[in-house]
Amino acid sequence: MKIAVFIDGSNLYSKFKELKIKNTSRFNFLKFILKLTKGISPSYIGYYVGQIRREKNNDKSEALYKNQQKFFTHLKSTLPNIQIVRGHIQNFNEIYKEKGVDVRLALDIYKLANEKIYQKALLVSSDTDLIPAIRLVKQMKKQIEYIGFSHHPSLAMVKECSSSLLMNHDDMKVFENNEMP
Fold it and tell me: Measuring CA to CA, which residue among 98, 97, 96, 149 is closest to residue 123?
């Protein structure tokens, strides 16, 4: 069975914070993906996130940019085939908001199903804005599994997806070490 993995980066990052997974630069994404796919090598792995831009005379944006670039390097080193799909980040009076990411994620869920890249999608996101794409994919007779977190599951995602896996702190803690499997 061909499997695709779609990761909503900011959604996952907020779950990391809630679960007190502190060092994302050491998180073993390869082990995480292989656990989700039960050892099957995915036909597609996408990580969807807003791209931080450097702003003139803004130390905060510079620090955020450098940290994000370091994280992207880590992702690419552990998962060479990963596609980092970038939206953008807008600064609204020093409050940074992600823009365009959910749309790109929803479009790719649909487009890659239509192109027969996968029979089953694993969706690491609790964002209910993705439900219309989920419904379309299910109409195409594709499976879509919601990967969420037991401390704060999206009941709408559990209801709409073909299946779900709810992970907890202990499940995620084992991936904090960056040793290869």
Answer: 149
Q: 63 in a domain, yes or no?
A: yes
With respect to residue 94, please indicate whether it lies within any of the assigned structural domains: yes
pLDDT band, residue 88 (cuts 50/70/90):
confident
Closest CA to 4 of 79, 109, 93, 100: 109
Domain carrying residue 91? 3-173
Higher confidence at residue 39 or residue 25? 39
CA distance 22 to 54: 24
Range 67-84 average pLDDT: 92
Nearest to 1 by CA among 85, 110, 122, 84: 122
**Number of domains, the chain:** 1
Can you tell me the mean pLDDT for 117-135?
97
Kindly give, in sequence order, each residue whose CB lies less than 8 Å from that of residue 93, ignoring residues fewer than 6 positions away. Answer: none
- Measured over the CA atoms of residue 143, residue 108, residue 13 and residue 30, the dihedral's sign is positive
Which tokens belong to 50? 């807003």
CATH number of 83's domain: 3.40.50.1010
Q: So what's the pLDDT on residue 90?
A: 79
